[in-house]
Design goal:
Blueprint lengths: L6 E6 L5 H4 L7 H8 L31 H9 L4 E6 L12 H18 L7 E6 L5 H11 L5 E7 L12 H9 L4 E4 L20 H6 L1 H14 L2 H4 L5 E3 L7 H15 L10 H8 E4 L9 H10 L2 H4 E2 L20 H15 L3
Length: about 350
Amino acid sequence: MTDLGKVIDVDVHNEQNDADLVPYLPEPWRSRVARSGVGYSYSGYYSPVGVMRRDALPPGGGKAGSDPDLIIRQLIEPYNVEYAVLTGVVYNISTTHDPDFAAAICSAYNDYLIAEWLGKHPAFKGAMAVATQDPQLAAREIDRIGRHPDIVEVIISSAARAPLGQRQFHPIYEAAERNGLPVALHPGAEGAGSATAPTAAGYPTWYIEWHTCLSQMFMAHLVSMVCEGVFEKFPRLKVVLVEGGMAWLPHLMWRLDKNYKALRSQVPWLKKLPSQYIREHCYLSTQPVEEPDNPQHLVDLLNMVDAENMLLYSSDYPHWDFDPPTVLKRMSPEARRKVMYENARQLYRL
């Protein structure tokens, strides 16, 4: 039990078998998945510690994260989690080549999420998945179920074919704003399928390189969103950068502000410093927390980014680098309460 009182966890990965989606798919996708599975594209990098917590495997068999009752026993009850945003893994479908198939998989998953998960426990809230290959189809899906009372977010993959601020992606943000939903970016398939290389230099050799460099994707997408005017065009939109770290944010804002002062003629639609858009529209999840040898350095970093107003607690259950709600102990009690609960409560209107 945490000493913080109630907790909201913004990144809990519920899993499903491919067969679970079959009843929710129309033809020809139903027969395809029944015969061959979904065929998600993952990064392909081997992790020597695996991806999932071993104790999260359901006793009756199945994938880690596939048993609602086990999630309740391992996460919801012991840590006093009032709400858990179920983020799934289906967003990785955005690295496949067929936009119609990707959109159909997301629609099936969203129906499955509502039917099979959101009523299992009052804590469960849903992040609906959309694919980025065809933003018009994604917008249609957001309008289809975005008003469901237990859907609190739209989630997309940070593995993409182009920086996500570019105007071809704007229908997603327009639909999210129209439905009052934040948009979350989540990693997992960088370098796979139709996505770009997972680092600015190309393809690394080892999982440790891939995992460390994931923050590069978030930096590129965030700069793109600011400079392409996403937050000026959609002034009520909120964006959550999930599982991409946070230590990179101060220097990114400083560098972008400095360059903006000399190069603002390229982005005349911006009416504020780039860092101001980031502070007003963006949140970062706590997991994975960068933990320097000197704990004071983390405190200093948190102060630099106004962490008590920009951070949301996430456990990343059931992954190997799961963080319980005991992180960030050096923050003040009031600041920790905001990170662990209040910021998410306000963002998701819970």
